[in-house]
Amino acid sequence: MPMKQGSSCAIITPMTNEGKLDIPSLRKLLKFHLASETDNLCILGTTGEASVLNMEERAQVLTTAVEEVKGKIPILAGTGTIKPEAVREMTLQAIELGCDASLVVTPYYVKPPQRGLIKHFTDMADIGLPVVMYNIPGRSQVDLSVESTVICAQHPNIIGLKDATGDLDRVQQIRQSLAAEDDLLLYSGEDGTSSEFVMRGGDGCISVTANVAPKAIHDLMMASLAGNAELAKNINKPMLDLHKKLFVESNPIPVKYAAWRMGLISTPYCRPPLSDLDAKVLQRR
């Protein structure tokens, strides 16, 4: 199922208080997103704590997603990491299990040159699963340039970019630089500015806030795609404080706490090195 414009939820991975996968809660979340008109689901991204899951656990999560939403909501599986061989292994697993696309982050910490980034993304696209590139220099310490993005977009299997640079001018720069036949999907990775991102030529967002307000984020994206700035502003205004509060500590600590308080998951547990939400944060509410 092709990736769509609109709201993509970067979904959390529910766990028990013992740190085991909570598959019943995951099924509940997936059904919640079906009912809430979420447009795409991003499984096993940073918000899904993918870095602390093993391959068997990844298979359990992806299999559950395929069982619940395959053919109803496009499934974008996070397969990015620092080691190309590991990206390949996770991508092949995602293909085998029936995912629709892969989210591949710029390799972090080692700061590859632009030619290395281009090779990395095109090599991963050659595996066969459609690729959404993920540019988040604040975490990876490397920035995929506009020029490199445009080169990568020429690969028929590179279908999108999640942009978490915070630079709204990038959207127009990329759009203006793409060839007329390139229909690269541009997703914002910043909830606070996703509406303006879309208004400037983006296609949607990959959202943390959508974990707890999926219908509102879907409606926000639809209004923004339609160019209805007034409606988008009215939809987004009640969520402005929420966008900020979901990042008072490292993601996904706050959003798991919020989902737990809403009764969406059984516990707010995050695996180490993350932790519970600081009690001092709760006192400041």
Describe the 3D structure.
By secondary structure, the protein is an alpha/beta fold. The protein has 13 helices and eight strands. The protein has helices spanning 23-35, 55-69, 84-97, 114-126, 137-140, 146-153, 169-177, 194-199, 214-225, 229-236, 240-245, 253-261, 279-283; strands at residues 6-10, 40-43, 75-78, 101-105, 131-135, 158-163, 185-188, 204-207. It has an eight-stranded parallel beta barrel with strand order 1-2-3-4-5-6-7-8, surrounded by five helices. The mean pLDDT is 96.
Secondary structure blueprint with pairings:
Blueprint: E1 6-10, H1 23-35, E2 40-43, H2 55-69, E3 75-78, H3 84-97, E4 101-105, H4 114-126, E5 131-135, H5 137-140, H6 146-153, E6 158-163, H7 169-177, E7 185-188, H8 194-199, E8 204-207, H9 214-225, H10 229-236, H11 240-245, H12 253-261, H13 279-283
Parallel strand pairs: 1-2, 1-8, 2-3, 3-4, 4-5, 5-6, 6-7, 7-8
Helix pairs in contact: 1-2, 2-3, 4-6, 6-7, 9-10
